[in-house]
Amino acid sequence: MAKAIHKETKKAELDWRLVTAIFFQESSLRLDPQNCHKNHCQDFGLGQVRLKVWGDHFDIDRNRILSDVHYSVHVSVKVLKDYKRRYGKKELNWFTRYHSNKPELRFAYMQHLNRAFYKINSHVEAQKGREIAAID
Known about the structure:
Structural class: mainly alpha
Strand order of the largest sheet: 1-2-3
Distance between the termini: 30 Å
CATH architecture: Orthogonal Bundle
Number of helices: 6
């Protein structure tokens, strides 16, 4: 999963930590989650991509997004890149539109992403500490 995230975010010129935080928030980094309500599923994969909105736009394969980690990352990054293209120059927190267009929901989502970002950065710093200790 990490390799797929690094590869796709580099191509899309997005921060891998941001994308990982979004995946953490959306799916707890699980590949196969589906957001279902009343026997109807709407959101799929690592990034919980809403097929009703993005399915036709990007010709998304529902089964593949739930089983192929590289494809799930690719599709989610593609959606996020589209939001950046549309809102990146106008809005500092353009990436919160990945969750909603409603300001109050975007604010709450930003708070969740901040917590996830903190966990990711803490993990990265701990890994760096282990690497330095191994060198010494």
